[in-house]
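Table S2 (continued). Query chain:
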Amino acid sequence: MNDYLHYISIPLIILVIGIFFKNRKSDTQSNVIRQPKMYFYGGIFMAIIGSLLALLVGLFSTPENETETLVGILVLLGFAMIGVALIYWSFNWKIEITEDNLVFRSGFKKKKTFRIKDLAYDSNNSKSDLYIGGQLVLSVTVMMENYDLISKTIKLIAYNSSSTGTIKGNSNARNFGFTFSILGLIFSLLFIITLHFNESSTDIVISYVLLVVGLIMLVFGVFLILFRYVWKITIDEERVEIISIFGFKKTYHKKDLKYQVTNHGNKVFLNDNQIVYFNENFTEQPKLIYSLVRKK
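Corresponding output:
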């Protein structure tokens, strides 16, 4: 298998180079929002580098390291295929704005259509979140091509003292949470493998370092997952209900709470004591705290 597997790289390289020269000068339509070009070039880079290295590893392998060569080629080809997937995803993902509708196509060609009059957006630092009746439906970042179409065609959400709704963790918290959890499990598994197959003191120390790093990443990942699916702040006309990441619930009178916006996140206070902190990049509708009294 080792004798031929690396030759898969050759048609893969030709395909990616052809895609690059065909699409490098393509222009985005004025009514379409697309992912930034860096995803396209990043995918090209990953696909070519992974394929070239897999080819070189296969060409210069020896019978003595056949197993290591096979593993190396599979890892490098996997890296290259991730690049191809990134190219494919960046091509397909787009938001098209017509006179009455916003048409969204995901990276895997799943299509959703929304009426523009039903949408409202909230701008938070480097992104805009699109809502329908308080439900987040899309997020668009400033790096995307024609990002300003959102502010030109969709109404801005206005928050005031009478605003009600729920602040909760968003997809960023979920995605980072699952990523860190998986990496934490991988590092913990490497600890077991390293400890089992190595007897030297140096290898044992390395294995425990892997365990510590893995546990830290796993705890952080679980925290973000709980933040996404359990933690929330519900604000109505008179009360504010806060549920912690562990499910503990507390209710406060709205008039007793104050908020403060800092460079690092948003804070909620009760009698000058901080009771909640959250970052708007990991939450939906973070500006709902504007319905509270601002802390001076």
